[in-house]
Specification:
Shape: elongated
Radius of gyration: 22 Å
Strand content: 15-25%
Number of strands: 3
Helix content: 10-25%
Structural class: alpha+beta
Largest sheet: 3 strands, antiparallel
Oligomer: single chain
Low-confidence stretches: none
Length: 127
Amino acid sequence: MTKKAQVIIAGGDNLYAAETQYATSAGKIADFQFHQYHMRTWWDEGYKPLPCVVTATNKCDDAPIGGGVGPLLWLSYGDNPPPNAKFDPALAAKNVWQWWWNRKAIGGVDGSYDMGLFIRSDLGEQP
């Protein structure tokens, strides 16, 4: 007799593959019920400097870790400024004011590292 797992926990880059393998079915009842949970969440990091671009004269060895749009554009427009955007002090003041008084985030708040919980369908429990 083959033992079958009662619960499976998957996360990170393996979540979609695990869901496809265990929680989907082609015309039959799936072996596992699935629920996705947010394990860690974070706000955008658009305030970080622009990523360093490696060139023949710049190896980016001492560059700070970037990946954002820079603090001034971020304060003005959040993590997705329009093309050719420039720092706008009025928008930045408005965004800072809305954060201070209304706790309205300046950029996105949907970043997360997720996990999936699979519970065998025949156990009668919901994930």
